[in-house]
């Protein structure tokens, strides 16, 4: 915290009394002899602790009260230091870096074991180097984030770093959806390092400091007036004031004169403002009038019983205002921290001893008595005790983490209005913005989601409850210069117009609708890019935005990789991608068109299966169905007729066997699917238009050597050359839709004609709709991209407009604009081709396989039954041959394989009824002899 001089003449009497009390409390030191380089080893009755503050400043005055009160309480407590007393040596730095440094050196000549303060960040930087050399713990109230560096080994901050305060401000900025702030700060270590931390914190929320307004520590009213006049010319209306109390009030006084505390402005003050207001007995109405609507942050101090008792006792002793602020409590706890650490140090046998440092010897001819500065021998041990000390003080829980920072940083968020301040919420590093006291949140799981961030409502400058937009275009501000491509063709997207706006089209209306949704007004003018005689080069258009010739570019601008490297694009508002367009023609009638639905392979396999299934059914039905019997010639005709008549479900032969019916049902199902597919394919072939070229997509286009049409100015030119490796000599630039149609109708064999055109899908959809589907896209999109609006790098507009475009898409307004401007085409996206319409065996081999398996299984079952019957039938033939075998002169002969196979075929050719009669008769005959042998017994032997 920077320092501020305050008139303290009215407090002279009580300050003299306090100093007198301190002097009376001093006791003598007991000195023992020593040897060597070390100084005398002391067994102190009094331990010296130094305090460096600017006691005429708002912070120093409040800290002094806390320091003296803490010394009194420590020395009155018999449980601490065990009889030893703390001697607080006060030294005034007079708000001067040089005098503060000299005073710090003079203080350390008095052999202090620890130093409390300073509050000034500049002095703290210097003193930190000194205490590092002398091994003295420095318990500082300086809030500069840069003091947390590792080089300051003996520096400990007993308050909170401004790093957390700036994170709180960044979260407030995000909560109210602002994107830019202006930082007003004093140009010293405290101001610069704090604002640097603010910039880092805002960057994590995609916000930034748009302008840094710095002024010297002793700036006059005229200097601040010039600065605020310049600030008021900027677009942002969110101001963060990070100064000291004296200059801070000057800033608000000048701002009120410039009418910068009215509606539309946002002022956020850091903890310097509540620190000043809290110590004042009564803030004048004029001062409060300067601060109406200001948001301020104050260190959060838990409302504990010990704090209440301390403030109550202090107020009663002074019979009026406490004159205390958060720095008073931090100073009070700093004394207790030093006392507790010393108590632990002494308990472990620590001694107070100092040694001379040879590096601090007096230089010949110099009057600087550096040899009086000696190193505290127990410094490292005392520092360790300080870092491990943990207790609950008036300012909350005192404990240091691994970064030597106090745990649980938190701030109160105040709204200044009327004659006082009102608490509107809290910020903690644990759960960010909340209306719940941080101590309650520490007991719950951390929740930093956007839905959990809350603040109470309050009144803004200008006595309004409506949230300021935080962004305006002042009267002398320059509107955004937006480049619009002056196209030669496709005027539906963007074109020159005689209206006051100067341009019109789908892209323009989308941009205007998105701008209308922004939480702040955006003044802008459109500038045509190009001469209108040809489409402009879009890479040049984007480059002009990157070079800051224009603030943005609006139009049919494709988001591609090389462009995103130099500008920021919004969310795409139109999907796009490169497609290939080729001419089509009506299908001509052919005498053999009826064969087109199936490939040759499919026709052959289908015919084979017709004959195969007919043969299987004939085999299964021949023995049981008289319709499948007769002379061989008739049976062959029956097989052919039955096979092909199933195609039309007109077969007149009935199946009677179970296996035959099973095969026939399955085959009729296959025939049904084949017929349906054939009919659908033939209908498609005879009714759709077909390509008049052999180009069926980007791959075939690359392999060919035919010319390719490309829109003039499109990124497709470079894409085809550098990404697809197509020779530039094959590319033909086309300027308009008329050129597209003419080139496609000419064809690749005529000068000026092309085999196909490669362009973005939005253009092609418009082109197809206006050419009555004479042309078709072939293949698939081979790039995926979109159209967006281009802005300069790090422009907040890109993010805000992206959100607005998403909102347009969600509420349906984007589709309404598209329907209004772009032609709806009934043309199909993809063109069917002749080859792709033919059905091959791949589409039906599963059905044929199932049918084949069922036929084989049916034949297997049939032959199994036949062979079983044949085995039962063969003994009859042997019986008939027995009379011949009884003749002794006849030779023994076995039937040959040929005769056996012939007998089997003759057996199969018999009717099923005849076979069953023979087997029945044979069974009866075999039972007769058996019965007679059972009636008569054989004669005895």
UniProtKB/TrEMBL annotation:
Gene3D superfamilies: 1.10.287.70, 3.40.50.2300, Periplasmic binding protein-like II (3.40.190.10). The chain crosses the membrane at residues 12-32, 598-620, 662-686, 844-864. Residues 879-898, 922-941 are annotated as: Disordered. Disulfide bonds join 773-827. It is a multi-pass membrane protein. It comes from the Eukaryota. This is Glutamate receptor. It comes from Kalanchoe fedtschenkoi (Lavender scallops). PANTHER family: IONOTROPIC GLUTAMATE RECEPTOR (PTHR18966). Belongs to the glutamate-gated ion channel (TC 1.A.10.1) family. Pfam families: ANF_receptor, Lig_chan, Lig_chan-Glu_bd. GO terms for molecular function: ligand-gated monoatomic ion channel activity. InterPro entries: ANF_lig-bd_rcpt, GABAb_receptor_plant_PBP1, Glu/Gly-bd, Ionotropic_Glu_rcpt, Iontro_rcpt_C, Iontropic_Glu_rcpt_pln, Peripla_BP_I. Residues 481-824 form the Ionotropic glutamate receptor C-terminal domain. It is found in: Membrane. Keywords: Disulfide bond, Glycoprotein, Ion channel, Ion transport, Ligand-gated ion channel, Membrane, Receptor, Signal, Transmembrane, Transmembrane helix, Transport. Its main location: membrane. GO terms for biological process: cellular response to oxygen-containing compound; response to wounding; signal transduction. GO terms for cellular component: membrane.
